[in-house]
Design brief:
35% of the residues lie in helices and 32% in strands. It is α/β, with parallel strands linked by helices and 132 residues long. Strand 4 and strand 5 form a beta hairpin.
């Protein structure tokens, strides 16, 4: 059974669920346990990367994920790199969701412009190592 582990700060949209099933063959979606979700969603921008806490997430993946499972990794850049590197070295498939932005501007009160950005899922893309 192909699983998609979710290391990001949002819930999947219906479009993402459908795409994961169709394009990746995902049969089961696995969210982080609440305590690990707090770690992933609240990486402090004011200190060094919290490797002790991130290793709790990596240890959870070691226990729960199997070779060939997908790991959706999006978040703090350093934390993302850390987990993606782990995945690539351990036969897990790290992916991220690509999206297109639709920007809508409307005239607001007192001559102000109100700008709204709508993000729409396009596809999942694999993280890869490249040799230069």
């Amino acid at each position: 059974m192909t699983k998609l582990f979710l290391l990001f700060s949002h819930k999947l949209t219906d479009k993402q669920i459908t795409d994961a099933k169709e394009s990746l063959g995902v049969e089961k979606f696995v969210y982080l346990p609440d305590d690990l979700q707090v770690i992933w969603s609240q990486v402090s921008p004011y200190s060094e990367l919290p490797l002790i806490e991130l290793n709790r997430i990596v240890d959870w993946l070691k226990f729960e994920a199997n070779k060939g499972d997908y790991i959706l990794v999006q978040g703090d850049f350093g934390a993302t790199f850390y987990v993606v590197d782990f995945c690539l070295k351990n036969n897990l498939i790290p992916v991220y969701s690509t999206s297109r932005r639709i920007s809508v501007e409307k005239n607001g009160n007192n001559g102000k412009i109100v700008k709204t950005n709508i993000f729409e899922h396009v596809t999942f893309r694999k993280y890869r190592y490249f040799a230069f």
